[in-house]
Input
Amino acid sequence: MRPVATKLLHWYSQNARILPWRGDNTGVDTAYAVWLSETMLQQTTVGTVIPYFKKFIYLWPSVTHMAHASLDDVLAQWAGLGYYARARNLHKCATVIAHVHNGRFPSDESVLLKLPGIGPYTAAAICAFAFGNRTVVVDTNIERVVSRLCYIKTPLPQSKPIIYAHMDSITPDNAGDFAQAMMDLAHGICKPKLPECPKCPLQSECQTPQSMKANLPKRTPKKQRPHRYGYMYVVRIGNGILTETRPPKGLLGGMQGIPTSDWGDCYPRDHTSAPVLARWHESGQYKHTFTHFHLHSKVFYTSINHIPDGYNTSNGDNLPTVFKKALMYI
Output
């Protein structure tokens, strides 16, 4: 076995994190647990994902159970986790696996890549973690470790093929444990800003000078996010809040949300987009950052006695975060 793999796997045998999707999930298919957790972990921290993962496993203990759930139920339980296209693809993928693959995840990367929402990383992770295949698993944490280990000065994303090739060269047959060891090393030692190099089992293998490690991986500067502006309309009705189902496609597609104006280059001039004719009271404003833009919202509220046609009510618990923030101002 390669020296890097030997040293790292020895360290991992004594320092592996205990996570609910690793190891024996009694009564839960391993591939299902890996797929669900890896989908949730995209651009989301482990600490945030753990309670969502446990909740989903409790509600839908198999991919077939999830396929038989409604999309609305899946979206409601996903609320607050963000990046809602993941939830829509989750349900769509579960449906395909249940009906096309008889409820069993394929063990072939090329087949997995054809499923909704499954990209190269998730396909490789399922094959390695669930089926023991020798695949090359590279996420953002592994990119950081490999960039430092191999002193890769080319900035991301241009360096992705270089990182992949290096990861391929050091990955042993036991690819699943090795990839998870790399992730645990990134989490506990090879941290983004303050790597704890004296504790690292790969310190003698690392090619990056000590003074340069915190600067890797380099990244091509991102374009600045644009700013958009709009109104949030909070309508009290009894003990609930007036909500609407957002269009199935686009941002927050299919989710329940409070009514809003359009989100444009400036605030609206009036309340023509309000859900009801009422006396609106402005109660505050806040900023929420999406992947591609910053949203500046002014919150207006009122109370009514009857639910207008086309609307629903909610206690607010299962609303996306951008709408929950508005409720803090009433």
